[in-house]
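Repro:
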Amino acid sequence: MDNQTMLDRIFAGYDGFFASEKKIAGYIMENHKKVINMTIKELAKECGVSEASISRFCKKCGAQSFHHLKIELARERMATDKNVKVSNDIARDNIPQSLRNILANKIEELTATINMIDPAELNEILNRIQNARTVQVVAVGNTIPVAMDCAFKFNEIGIPTVTGSIWETQAAYSLSLREDDVLIAISNSGEASKIFTLVQLANERNVTTVGITNNKNSAIGRAVKYHIQTATREKLFLNEFCFSRISAATIIEILYLFLTIGQKDAYARLSKCEELFAAEKL
């Protein structure tokens, strides 16, 4: 199942685009409503690229032509337009509007993430995690907090899960994984070389591998047995592409909630954890 919108594909592929393609992608991200009424010549001029570059970019994003890309953008606009005035701007001198802008984009981000989930594949992932001897969650950089949250949640309901903030520690542990274990790899671009190495090691040992990335066609996306795609809209606000942890954290929350209802004694374990934690509270 592929429920990616055209904007989802552009966001997902951004890190892998060439310089000229990033110019096109950046312009469309910030002006997708305007692009609907532009000619290919006008867009090429605005981006400072050739018309041939526009055509190649469209095909790279899964559109047969620029006309097809515009149709997709127009359809998406009709589906999401709720007559609420929002933009991609954040300014301290207009905090109320900026908050609405952030909220609108975050809602779109989470909606796109959930719409891209394949129910059958999700169910298979849940079965693999629920029956695993051990789950290892691997991440580097700013995805480490998501991995640590995943380990905390899974352990709360009785699923033995490990992670670490040091890559070498993660790598050493991954060498002990077996066929009845699961490795969950979290990466924005899906191109993190250290995480890719751990996925390869796990695959060699016939470990079930699950990837959570923004791009299913990335190195990690192609290497894992199962893949869950996330969406991000951070590029709308920041000049440099930045990974939004909200989408990845939402996927972890979804896994946790489904696992909780299927895990034996999950609620009893949660109550016991709350008793332990309560001792530290005033």
